[in-house]
Amino acid sequence: MKIVCASSVLFGREAFSTLGEIVVLPDRAITKKDLQDADALIVRSKTTINEALLEGTPVGFVGMATAGTDHMDLNYLAHSPLAWSAAPGCNANSVAEYFTAALLFLAHRSGFVLENMVVGVVGVGQVGGRVVQKAEAMGMTVLRNDPPLQVATGDTGFVPIEEVLRHADILTFHVPLTQVGTYPTRGMVKCNFLASARPGCIFINAARGEVVDSEALMFALEQHIVSHAVLDVWENEPFISPALLQKVALGTPHIAGYSFEGRLNGTMQIYREACHYFEIEPGWSPDESVFPRAPEIRADTRGKSDEAVLWEIVRAAYDIEADDRALRTGAGYDETARAMHFDALRRDYPARREFPAVSVVLEHASAELRAKVGALGFRVSVE
Predict the structure, then answer these.
(1) Which of 237, 273, 307, 354 is catalytic?
(2) SS (H, E, C) the chain
(3) 254 catalytic residue (yes or no)
(4) pLDDT per position as a tens digit, 61-89
(5) pLDDT tens digits, one per residue of 256-306
(6) 321 assigned to active site
(7) Among the four residues 65, 77, 143, 372, which has the most C-beta atoms within 10 Å?
(8) Phi and psi of 142, rounded to 5°?
(9) Which residue among the candidates 44, 71, 174, 254 is catalytic per the annotation?
(10) Distance of CA 177 to CAs 139, 164, 233, Å?
């Protein structure tokens, strides 16, 4: 058996070599020629999965070690004999931690308090559900909007988008990219959408770039309809807008879901699916001795607000400002070089451990603060 695996798949060689011969190639460089004698293809989001790539090859199984499927031609896959699987939810906690770090950064830099602010979570699936948990852990009021999920579940706790826009101090998007059906999301955030938002709101997009019309967001920032914007995803990646990057408070290269655990979860989910397809007993598990070391954080809480302590801890666990600085380093490059810089930042992204791997020692902390730190996912002890 031969397996072609994208180089961005964490532990891809180690995992899938237990099933057969493995060839590891750069994500965007994989072509039909590479698949002429392949039985399986394992990728992440930078490889487009469609008829042009797969038709006429012997590939029987395609695995996407990531949650999103907008890089896949689902219609083609539905009408082909191929077996395929994505890894929904694999990086959901990673994105929720990104949301947490972004808001605490903005509050610290701009001098406002998050507690009791209203956050509108648009899209409350695997990622959005975890974002709700983080927001509530920080004392925010949450408005949930997800029409497809509301229809599917009958849950009466969802809020119409008009009400979310009217009341939310913070808008955060965690929807899939869709362009058909009753609730398409491609281009849903346009000028009229943002014109209905609460003036001075904070805008976060860690879903897909094409959910947002970039020119509309630029206008909203210029007119102060949006006071601060955080973008991890962009229209036309990797050819992102340098003008929009200059306007946003935080800009990162589509890495919100790139935690070590998020990427590992994706590999493990697809490995199990491949074993099931080929009727092979799983024989690989990751070697924890080679995992990157998680931070160990000590925080003296005396004289500090709870939110200041949370920012201190979260910043030590995940320095979101470093990701912003890294992307801005390429802002002055020409278009081709900027795109290469964007891809390189994703390809060479440093290991980032999720909060549950991080030990936090709190000194002189109240029971309420200990509960908040634990609710964000950290392993907490006190002195």
Answers:
(1) 237
(2) CEEEEECCCCCHHHHHCCCCEEEEECHHHCCHHHHCCCCEEEECCCCCECHHHHCCCCCCEEEECCCCCCCECHHHHHCCCCEEECCCCCCHHHHHHHHHHHHHHHHHHHCCCCCCCEEEEECCCHHHHHHHHHHHHCCCEEEEECHHHHHHHCCCCCCCHHHHHHHCCEEEECCCCCCCCCCCCCCCECHHHHHCCCCCEEEEECCCHHHECHHHHHHHHHCCCEEEEEECCCCCCCCCCHHHHHHCCEECCCCCCCCHHHHHHHHHHHHHHHHHHHCCCCCCCCCHHHCCCCCEEEEECCCCCHHHHHHHHHHHHCCHHHHHHHHHCCCCCCHHHHHHHHHHHHHCCCCCCCHHHCEEEEECCCHHHHHHHHHCCCEEEEC
(3) yes
(4) 999 999 888 788 989 999 999 999 999 99
(5) 999 999 999 999 999 999 999 999 999 999 999 999 999 999 999 999 999
(6) no
(7) 65
(8) -115, 130
(9) 254
(10) 30, 20, 12
HSE-CB at 202 with a 13 A cutoff on CA atoms is 23
Catalytic residue among 71, 174, 208, 263: 208
- Provide the token pair at 146: 């997800």
Q: Which residues contact 192 (CB under 8 A, 6 or more apart)?
A: none
Taking a C-beta distance cutoff of 8 angstroms, is the pair 95, 174 a contact? yes
